[in-house]
What we know:
By secondary structure, this protein is of the alpha+beta class.
Amino acid sequence: MKPLLPVALALMPLLMPGTAAARTVYRCVQNNTVSLATAPEPGSKCKAQQVDDNAVQAPNLWGNMGVFSGTLYEREQDGQLVYSTRNLPGSRVFLKFTVATPPGEPAHEGMGKIGKPQLNRHAKQFKAAARATGVDDAWLRAIAHAESNFDAGAVSPKGAQGVMQLMPDTATELGVSDPLSAEQSINGGARYLKALLARYKGDRTLAAAAYNAGIGAVTRYKGVPPYAETMAYVEKVSTLYARYREAMGFKPETPAR
């Protein structure tokens, strides 16, 4: 596959009128997610970036990423057509795209599929880890479900291991000597999630994003990294968390205002 430029930059010369050699692309942040747009997005904090059409290599406004797919949306704003990678009210799909990004990022889609809650899988270990760390039992299960589908022997292509899919360096830092031990993996994962929740002041979305893509990526993007893998993972964990809470007899959480 040929390396591709970030989609917004590759398409700007086609989408924006005029013959100027430099164009403006807006990097917008809203609800802890990043998008690129041809005009400032309502409700987002946007920063203008100049892109030189004649540059030998176009800059990557997303930052360092892996390969992901997404959608470019078209909508009318102030009487003009504008384009954005965020699906705002009034938007319509303009095209689907794939962006090439460098290897080495830990972000992954997860090995478990969304399905029915599995309350019988390692139940004793999850309860013990939740009591020891104060991390919500339902959320621990949601992470494990998304990560490995509770398979203690799971090993990802990127080297993550066990029920909680701990990377070797993370497992070592957490004192997990056997990452394929369900008890050690769950306990270590719970302690890591506790630290992430403390870091992000209880924000589970950011904690899940950091668990998936790394603290550095969340810091770099000031929110959920714009990796398709991470965005899909965060959504998957959120859905699973709601299902586990319901299955465990908890009332649905009230969204924060």
